């Protein structure tokens, strides 16, 4: 059953749930921007984004604390049930994942500074492609969250295999390149870390997809083991 | 009517079966074709807004609607397979096996002892005084009241606190070996501590009885019951395991009611 759109009798309760959803949406938006900027910085080998990234990271962390407080308050004072219960518990889980994504995005951005010390390498194109997929995943899953739509969430969940595949290919190619040209080891290590962080972000997007699925349907999103 | 899976606790034997039960008061229909199977040795909660029919249905189970002028009950209602609306059934005997606990504790204006002994006496359950003493003690123990009243059994029942009175009333119901215990908002007049004691008692009693409780407190239904039935405008809308009703109700009306979205 879809989430109810009927208003609560107790207006303040409905408002508290709305505020929770708004906080979560804002946090999602911030993290998405954070990731876009981080990947773009890596591609451009741009060290100047660091302060901006740091400031946004602080906002993301503050929102997570805020969301945790709101959830605690809702449980203590409102005892949410049914869709409200699922929404509240999912918000808590999603905020934790978003905070981690923000953290990983920050790590990626910091690598841009390290890469700035090296000459441009073609390997960044691989990272750019992986980054584009992961950003798309994150955007889709956040859209699924705000529209309480299961279908895109399931799609994101399945697309994680693609991220893993691309990541593995990238690692293989990096190893080959670095073996052939030891000059690539320096920037290569940073790029490997960036790729690893992106792969982790993909996992968090998958977690969020699961939370959205549970929030809307009340059932867990589980692997189809028939194949 | 939507999803009213007949027996949400499949491992428990069915005690009460209702088939298309209707009730009308002076021609005005209060209950529409309620069909439900209620398992033994568990707690089933009836929830729903005022006037939804939950208490009306509860009152069918010990034929209390008989006492209301112009009340008409239709359909079939069985306890252990026995049709309770059958002409051969004496409502007084039925009410011994289907005990009732009301919103406000209603001890008789008698001693604590006599409150509990009243039922066993009129139903001839004890032949001697020691037998009666034993029944009274057992019932008070099961109701979790013995320790508090054993030294003043001759005091009036009305001298007890509200929570104690409610447990006395439960002891009175238990004393006649009921099959089913009906509770109509048994805690609405009690403070949270007395409420917790009654809820603990309900949880203990369910080992031996089929308990059906009407409550306006969603949290209470969630805390004490294994099955929950949601009534709305005289219909049984949804019936299922309590956990499912409170985490994932199937019907929008149930959802709106339990999340506080009802107009």
Task: Give a structural overview.
The complex is a heterodimer of chains A (227) and B (263). Chain A is built from six helices and no strands. Chain A is mostly helical and 227 residues long. Chain A has a single domain (11-217), classed as Phosphate transport system protein phou homolog 2, domain 2 (Methane Monooxygenase Hydroxylase, Chain G, domain 1, Up-down Bundle), CATH 1.20.58.220. In chain A, α4 packs parallel to α6 (185-217) and α5 runs antiparallel to α6 (185-217). Chain A starts with 10 loop residues before the first helix and ends in a 10-residue tail after the last helix. The model of chain A has no long low-confidence stretch (mean pLDDT 92). By secondary structure, chain B is of the alpha/beta class. Chain B has one domain (14-258): 3-Layer(aba) Sandwich (Rossmann fold). Chain B is built from ten helices and ten strands. Chain B has helices spanning 54-60, 91-97, 112-122, 129-142, 146-149, 162-174, 192-205, 218-224, 242-247, 252-258; strands spanning 14-25, 28-39, 42-47, 71-79, 82-83, 98-101, 180-184, 210-214, 227-232, 235-241. In chain B, strands 6-7-8-3-9-10 form a six-stranded mixed β-sheet, with helices on both faces. In chain B, a hairpin with a 2-residue loop joins β4 (71-79) and β5. In chain B, α4 crosses α6 (162-174) and α6 packs parallel to α7. Chain B starts with 13 loop residues before the first strand and ends in a 5-residue tail after the last helix. The model of chain B is unreliable at 1-5 (pLDDT under 50). The chains are: A mainly alpha (227), B alpha/beta (263). Chains A and B meet through α3 of A and α8 and α10 of B.
């Amino acid at each position: 059953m879809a989430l109810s759109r009927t208003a609560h009798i107790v207006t303040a309760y409905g408002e508290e749930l709305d505020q929770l959803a708004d906080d979560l949406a804002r946090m999602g938006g911030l993290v998405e921007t954070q990731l876009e900027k981080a990947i773009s910085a890596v591609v451009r080998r741009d060290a100047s984004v660091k302060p901006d990234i740091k400031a946004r990271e602080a906002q993301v962390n503050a929102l997570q604390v805020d969301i945790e407080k709101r959830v605690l308050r809702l449980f203590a004072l409102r005892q949410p049930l049914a869709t409200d219960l699922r929404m509240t518990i999912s918000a808590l889980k999603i905020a934790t994942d978003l905070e981690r994504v923000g953290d990983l995005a920050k790590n990626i951005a910091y690598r841009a500074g390290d890469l700035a010390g090296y000459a441009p390498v073609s390997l960044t194109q691989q990272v750019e492609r992986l980054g584009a997929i992961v950003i798309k995943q994150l955007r889709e899953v956040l859209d699924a969250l705000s529209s309480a739509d299961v279908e895109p969430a399931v799609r994101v969940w399945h697309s994680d295999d693609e991220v893993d595949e691309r990541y593995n290919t990238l690692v293989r190619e990096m190893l080959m390149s670095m073996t052939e040209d030891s000059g690539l080891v320096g920037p290569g290590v940073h790029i490997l870390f960036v790729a690893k962080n992106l792969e982790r972000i993909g996992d968090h997007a998958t977690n969020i997809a699961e939370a959205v699925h549970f929030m809307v349907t009340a059932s867990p999103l589980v692997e189809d083991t028939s194949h | 009517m939507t999803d009213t899976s007949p027996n949400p606790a499949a491992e428990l034997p069915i005690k009460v079966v209702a088939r298309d039960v209707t009730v009308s008061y002076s021609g005005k229909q209060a209950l529409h074709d309620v069909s439900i199977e209620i398992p033994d040795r568990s707690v089933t909660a009836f929830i729903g807004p005022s006037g939804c029919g939950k208490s009306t249905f509860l009152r069918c189970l010990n034929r209390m609607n008989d006492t209301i002028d112009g009340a008409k009950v239709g359909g079939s209602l069985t306890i252990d397979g026995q049709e309770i609306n059958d002409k051969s059934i004496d409502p007084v005997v039925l009410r011994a096996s289907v005990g009732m606990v009301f919103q406000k504790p209603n001890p008789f204006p008698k001693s604590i002892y006599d409150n509990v002994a009243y039922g066993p006496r009129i139903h001839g359950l004890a032949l001697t005084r020691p037998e009666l003493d034993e029944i009274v003690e057992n019932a008070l123990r099961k109701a979790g009241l013995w320790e508090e009243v054993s030294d003043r059994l001759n005091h009036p029942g009305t001298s007890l606190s509200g929570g104690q009175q409610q447990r006395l009333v439960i002891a009175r119901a238990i004393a006649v070996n009921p099959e089913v215990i009906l509770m109509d908002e048994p805690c609405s007049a009690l403070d949270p501590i007395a409420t917790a004691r009654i809820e603990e008692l309900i949880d203990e009693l369910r080992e031996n009885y089929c308990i059906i409780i009407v409550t306006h407190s969603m949290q209470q239904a969630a805390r004490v019951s294994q099955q929950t039935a949601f009534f709305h405008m005289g219909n049984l809308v949804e019936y299922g395991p309590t956990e499912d009703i409170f985490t994932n109700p199937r019907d929008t009306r149930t959802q709106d009611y339990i999340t506080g979205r009802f107009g």
